[in-house]
Structure formats: C-alpha cells, structure tokens
Structure prediction request, 369 residues.
Amino acid sequence: MSGIRLDKVCKNFGATEVIKGIDLEIEPGEFVVLVGPSGCGKSTLLNLIAGLETLTSGNIFIGDRKVNEVPPRDRDIAMVFQSYALYPTKTVRENITFGMETRRIPRDVQDAAVKEFATLLQIDKLLARKPGQLSGGQRQRVAMGRALVRKPDVFLFDEPLSNLDAKLRIEMRTEIKKLHQRLGKTSVYVTHDQIEAMTLATRIAVMDLGHIRQFADPATVYEDPADLFVAGFMGSPPMNMIPGKLVREDGMHVDCGGNGGTPMRFPLPDAIARRVADQEGMDVVLGLRPETIFAAGTELPGPNRYIFERPVVVEEPTGPDTMIVFEIAGLDLIARVRPQDGKPQGTSFRFEVEMDRAKLFDAKTGLRL
Ligand SMILES: Nc1ncnc2c1ncn2[C@@H]1O[C@H](COP(=O)(O)OP(=O)(O)O)[C@@H](O)[C@H]1O
Ligand SMILES: [Mg+2]
Prediction:
C-alpha cells in the first residue's frame, strides 16, 4: 500500500495561482479529507494527485514513485466524482465491469470481483437494472463499485455525496467509512461539508485560497484550531467570535464591547493567561463554541466557569438541543443548551461559560494565541 506525498505543489491557471505551494504527507492506509469553502482549490489539488491536471511546479509522489509525468491510468488510482456518469444504456453489471472488459480481464475474474463488491455495496440485487431504474444513492453505490473492482492502490473522492439528499448522505457516509475500515486503502476525499470531514477523516486538511491552514486529526482541528479561519469553518453552529482587548486586572481578561453593544469582561483561565501575560492592550478575538455556553448550574461544577445574564434574542429548538441567541458587543452569539432549559424571547437567561475551552486569537494575524 502507498502513501502520498506532495512537495511544494503549485498550480496556476493562466495568471491565477490556485494552489500556492502545498506540502502534504499522507500515510499509507490513511483517509485524508480536504475540506474548505467552494473555490479554495480542493478539486484542483485532487486532480493533480489523479494526474487530470498538470503541475505548474513541485512534486507528487505515490509510494516511492514520483508521478509528475505519469498519466492517470498508470497511477493505480480510482476516482469517484459527484456526478457519477454511468452509462445509461448499460446494466449495473456492465457499468461496473466496463473498465475490466476494455482491459480484457477474463470473465471469471470479473464475476468474482462483481460478486465481492456488489454484496459489500448492497447492489447485488440490482445488477441487471439500468441506471435510470436506480435511486440516486444506488447509482452512487454503482459508481463506487466501478472504482472498487479496479482494486487500486489509492482512492480519490470528489464530493461523491453532494448530489444526494440529507438522509442518504448520512447513510452513504457510514458506508464509505465501513468500506475504508474493511479495505484500509489510502484515500483522499474532497468535501465542503465540515461534518463529513469530521466523521470520515483520519486527518483533515483545512484549505483556504490555495493553502492548507491546518492538517491534523478531527479532534485537534476542532479543539485546537490553528487560526480564525479553521475555527470558524469547523463546527455548526459556528464558534462565537468576539473581538476584544486584553486587560490586566486581578489576572488577564478580555474586554469585549468597546465599540458599542453590551460590554462584557471575560476572565481568562491561567493556562491561557500565561501565554499572553505581557500582551496587555492587544487586540484579540475570543472564541467560544456554542456547546461551551449552557444554562448556569445545569452541568457539574468545574473550574474557570464564568456566569453572566443576558436576555434571550431568539430561541431555536433543534430537538436534541436548543440554541439560544443573545447579544454581547453588538453581536448575535449562540449558546447550545438542553431543550428543557429553553426560554422564550425577552426572558433573562443566566449563562455559564467553560472558559477552559475558550480559544484566543490575535486579531491582526488571525493566529491562535
Ligand atoms: N480549468 C480551470 N481554468 C481556470 N480556472 C480554474 C480551472 N479550474 C479551476 N479553476 C479555478 O480555480 C479555483 C479553485 O477551483 P476548484 O479546485 O474547483 O475549487 P473547489 O473544488 O475547492 O471548489 C477556482 O477559483 C476556480 O475558478
Ligand atoms: Mg470542487
């Protein structure tokens, strides 16, 4: 099995730099997700690995082999796209075996491969049908089967679930994870959906404007975001970001609301305060995830909790949790509370924040402090 290594990879389209010097090392058997907003260069990077685009500069290695000049069909990869492009006049079986047919693979080998993967993908009862007689999810399974039967060294996926409805997307996400657990093949998976990235990846590469902002396992990307971009992109509802200034008064605090709106002074726990002890007056951004703000007294007591009261602006029940929107520093902030703690608009709400889980960023550079 092969890993993948990108070394200072750049790609320009005309005068536009789309991939701006990316280094990335993917271990054999890893499932790496490239995630980022639309247009940040995910597909371009994947196409470079696949050989569907040529490098402007840099090197790409699959295993020990430098593949810069190797055509796609000789890279031992299989790719699954968002639009699965099945042959409409061929049956499911013919769609799956088409590639083997053209490579003149013997019929009994084809049959064995179809049997193995059709069962795995639960399409064994659909082999005689045409794509027009399948649901979107079934068609995506067939497209996956077509990639699997080639038994490639590396799998590349470009938003394979984006065309499916929400329920099916969750089902297929589980299927893809099961497949990877079973086959253990090195995989690179592109998506703009941060939940898909969190659930599937062994490691996530968060991309923005042709750069990788952070490459780490899902828990690290979520709990230790490298900068404001990563912090804001990962998580739904997103992290609350409150601009403020560092002040020292009985320990370090963040003073928010200096430019209007309701002011609030959040005390920083020692672990964070120590890192910024000599930065008094600095412009910072305080990041508080919605799930670290809850109704006061409803969780076990812990150190470094800060309690404050604000009126409810909007109450949004989601079922398992209720979102409470409130205002500080002129911003709409969100707390994720238990459904039974929800209160109607206008009611005063006592919030408790786990300041231990607060993130602090340099307002100028966006970097985590
Ligand atoms: N063949 C091309 N010619 C010119 N520009 C392109 C081409 N392919 C992609 N781009 C541009 O490169 C940027 C990244 O595109 P892409 O890799 O498709 O982004 P993503 O997959 O993250 O949405 C976009 O601004 C897009 O318009
Ligand atoms: Mg894309």
Summary: The mean pLDDT is 94. The chain has two domains: 4-225, 240-362.
